[in-house]
Amino acid sequence: MFEEILGLPAHVLVVHAVVVFVPLLAVLAIGYVGLPRWRHRLDWALGILAVIAPVTAFVAVESGEAFTDALVAKGYQGQILNQIFEHSRYGDILFRIVVPLGIVAILLLVATSGHRRVPRLPTLVTPVLAVAVVALSIAALVYVYLTGHSGAVAVWGTTL
Predict the structure, then answer these.
(1) What does the alpha-carbon distance between residue 120 and residue 110 come to, in Å, rounded to a whole number?
(2) Of 60, 67, 150, 127, whose CA–CA distance to 98 is shortest?
(3) What residues pair up with 68 in beta bridges, in sequence order?
(4) Nearest residue to 106 (alpha-carbon basis) of 37, 25, 36
(5) pTM as predicted
(6) 107-132 pLDDT, tens per residue?
């Protein structure tokens, strides 16, 4: 399932979704925290991205593992394999950041919704969730960069 799409390695196609959706989630989440007057305009997009970004990160990790296995089976070794493993480690960390970011963003949406079915929460809940969202968003942006850069170096580093 995670190996090929139309004859191409799935990973090289799926990573583009991660590069788009994870930074969008991070920036929108920071905007949601920092611009309370705009929350009613951002909430639907934040909710959608809080689900889509972790899913794309999961698919990227799984397809990356399948791609790595295929490269190892073809006899890749040495420096290129070390670069692939470094890229893989960054991708795993990114996934472990994006899932909590999605969860905390949804919790923040619920906590700030003002919906009558949401019980009255302690005063500190919203600020704690806001700090967690901002911290996880910054970490996600850093690891999107590190993951993408290490993957690009592995593929294109000796091209020019």
Answers:
(1) 11
(2) 60
(3) none
(4) 25
(5) 0.90
(6) 999 999 877 887 888 889 999 999 99
